TrEMBL record:
Name of the featured protein: Diaminopimelate decarboxylase
PANTHER family linked to this entry: DIAMINOPIMELATE DECARBOXYLASE, GROUP IV DECARBOXYLASE
Region named Disordered: 1-24
Segments forming domain Orn/DAP/Arg decarboxylase 2 N-terminal: 53-303
GO molecular function: diaminopimelate decarboxylase activity
Amino acid sequence: MHASNPAREHSESEPLAQGFGRPTPDGTLWCEGVSLEEIARRFGTPTYVYSKAMIESRFAAYDRAFGETPHLVCYAVKANAALGILETLASRGAGFDTVSGGEILKAVAAGADPKKIVFSGVGKSRPEIALALFAGIRCFNIESIEELERIEAEAARLGRRAPIAVRVNPDVDPHVEERIATGLGTSKFGVDRDDVLPLYRRARELPHVEIVGISCHIGSQIQSTEPYLCMVEVLADIVRQLHAEGIVLKHIDFGGGAGVAYREGEKTLPPGELVSALVEKAREVLPGEALTYLIEPGRSIVAEAGVLLMRVEFLKHARAGARYAIVDASMSELLRPALYGAWHEIERVGSAAAQTELPISIAGPVCESTDILGRNRIIATFDNDLLVARTAGAYGMSMASNYNSRPLPFEVLVSGDRVEPLQKRRQTPLDLIEAQRSLLDKSAAGEARERAAALYEETAAFVRFMKESLERT
Ligand SMILES: Cc1ncc(COP(=O)(O)O)c(C=O)c1O
Ligand SMILES: N[C@@H](CCCC[NH3+])C(=O)O
């Protein structure tokens, strides 16, 4: 019998939706009904751990907030594309915002209704357009006149009609880190608001295109409703002009972007607050328009539902008192700190450690000076400790890479006291070799690869033996 999470018995009203919560008094950190130490024991590190109940409750919060208003919540697959997560959302009726053929295929494979898939992105390739047409998706969010002409040509070739919405660039400042703003006038995304009407007029002339909506997405990690309200005004202005020209739309897509709290006390934009503000504003500025409302949240559904579990290899000291905890995760597993200087709360997992006032930086093994997951944190930690980086469910695994030939981290989805591995097995360096050259090739060059495979297997067997010996003592 495993120990169970005592916090569960204490909050029966919403027992599992809290996902991770704070550690229990003995220092154990739980994901729903499973301790993170147990996950590390069973699956090793680095591992992303997700709470299914929290993902479901975040999706439900969006869905519920629309009430009786016709709507579709299209989860932005780019935030976290694990099939197990897409399946969870598809089974609850979610739609999907996709940005590549790969994401469309994954959504379909997860059981999504193609009529609930929208396809955004500034560079849709011809094969991706063909795939979307064969799948029968709900809508292409068109980002340029060049793309419109390309879609018309592909649809004509395939004898289909492509449903389209124009993604408007409203030139609205979302007041976020500039690298994740997408609706500023100079940005590569969307169609300049002055070019939108001519584009719709052109679309109306095209025989293989059907105008179904209008869309927008102004950025990510947005913390207030104010930029969204400016965006709705720009969209409403366009919808009214289209209506006057006899172009009547079926839907309006507000995009995603709601922010979450990465640090305690940081401002967030809860789903209910965002949806109420959008619906109220859209009704006010577009009275009488019978539009279905679409929204494309990514981060706000999965970020807080995930942590990255990692282990400290050892501590290292540098000049002037600089201290590092070198961990077995890095910018290859969690890129956000290196890419945006983003903050993730990092905590020690396990029984309470001694107090400390000494700052320590959590650093990965990758050969980049920016490979620091957290700078100068106050964490009492030592060799072999388990640590978590919180709020890592969004743009964590989905932006992970094999940089420095590091295998991708593992992922598990926790539901109550069950743990579902999201990959068939953890990636190994042999998988990286196999992706480029066969390990079974018997040619002269193949011998070197065979030696590498044997070397890896010998080491893996030794590591297993050491682990088992340690567990026995
Ligand atoms: C078109 C589009 N929709 C939705 C999203 C999801 O954004 P977020 O994860 O901030 O909700 C993005 C990413 O920023 C996007 O580019
Ligand atoms: N990947 C970014 C956000 C960009 C969203 C995609 N347009 C992040 O981690 O915050």
